[in-house]
Design brief:
Helices cover 80% and strands 0% of the residues. It contains 10 helices and no strands.
Length: 179
Amino acid sequence: MTTRSEETARGQGADFDAFYAATAKRLVATVYAMTGDLAEAEDAVQEAYVRAWQRWDRLTREGDPLPWVRTVASRLAISTWRRTRNRLRAQLRHGPGADVPELSADRVALVEALRQLPPQQRQVVVLHHLLDLPVEQVAQETGASSGAVRTRLSRARKVLGERLTDTGAFSTEGAASHG
């Protein structure tokens, strides 16, 4: 016979498992877009889910746990990124390693352009444009004011527009052939 606390724990485990299955892949993609490093993105996301599991009762009582997990994963990844900035700069100079799967020219151009943005600008671009979060939610998740988020977005859009136009990867001919 199972106790009530065992049943509750099993139910919470099932809820967490379903949450993880529904959100992990997209969260890894989000953090990867912020960092440009898949292994670091996977590590940061995994650690964020471990921390979420440790607080699962509180997170689910407060509502949707995804913004909390995304914020933790982003902060972990950015912290790692800052510590390994020199290694990433060397990778940018020498190109990706041979074990990186081949990506389309558009994705390569976008990832390279995102990598060249300062971390705070990259983070708001990914949250706002790739995840379609409103500016207010981006501000809440990053700890910045809405005005700061708008400024970062504006500066990042300008830089991305110049870099992506310069690469020719997003030409109007290419867009027309896909539509």
